[in-house]
Write a structure and sequence with these properties.
The protein has helices spanning 8-19, 23-47, 56-68, 78-104, 131-144, 146-157, 162-169, 173-192; strands spanning 111-113, 128-130. With 194 residues, the chain is mainly alpha-helical. The chain has one domain (8-192). The N and C termini lie far apart (48 Å).
Length: 194
């Protein structure tokens, strides 16, 4: 990267240039996007995914390859790009957890620490959850409320802030905060049975 900070509009413009066939745009986009994906994946793996065999570079490289294979996507903006990146990272992490389960024939479950994601001051702390159970609960939430499901995916798997999530979905930060709180409560009840 050239060291300069890029605005979301710059990334959006470069995404559109790349979609329109400008090879030089892809050359400018790769270092920007790769570094942002590394930041998101590193934050997620350090905070949430406790497993030595799953490395930031592995997740980023797999997400990167899948993202750039999707040239025909009509990238609306930077937020749209990273929303799709969040979906891909979720699939990568959950697929990895499922492979581990198959390899261990029921053992070696990868756990997800949800210290901030699902606990509130009024609720008992929920330290560790199974990644596959989280994905199943999130699929149920998506069936009930697709918007809340997307918010959880962006915030939890994509590591996006409230403001970034709002921009990606084209809604207000207040709506994201409200829906995030409701979704966390629903997921907490679903995962703990309380």
């Amino acid at each position: 990267m050239d060291g300069r900070s890029r605005s979301p509009d710059d990334v959006t413009r470069i995404l559109h240039e790349w979609k329109d066939g400008n090879r030089e745009a892809l050359d400018r986009l790769i270092p920007i996007v790769y570094e942002e994906l590394r930041t998101i994946a590193s934050r997620q793996l350090a905070r949430e995914w406790r497993h030595d065999r799953l490395q930031t570079t592995t997740v980023v490289n797999e997400a990167y390859v899948k993202l750039f294979a999707q040239r025909e996507v009509d990238w609306q903006n930077r937020g749209h790009f990273f929303a799709i990146a969040a979906q891909l990272m979720r699939r990568i992490l959950v697929d990895h957890a499922r492979r581990e389960l198959r390899e261990k024939h029921g053992g070696g479950v990868i756990h997800v620490e949800l210290s901030d994601a699902l606990s509130t001051a009024a609720e008992p702390s929920l330290d560790v959850l199974d990644a596959v159970a989280l994905d199943a609960a999130l699929q149920k939430l998506e069936a009930l409320d697709p918007d809340q499901g997307r918010i959880v995916e962006l915030r939890f798997f994509g590591g996006l802030t409230v403001e970034e999530t709002a921009a990606a979905l084209g809604i207000s930060p207040a709506t994201v905060k409200r829906e995030w709180a409701v979704a966390k409560g629903w997921l907490y009840r679903e995962l703990t049975g309380s």
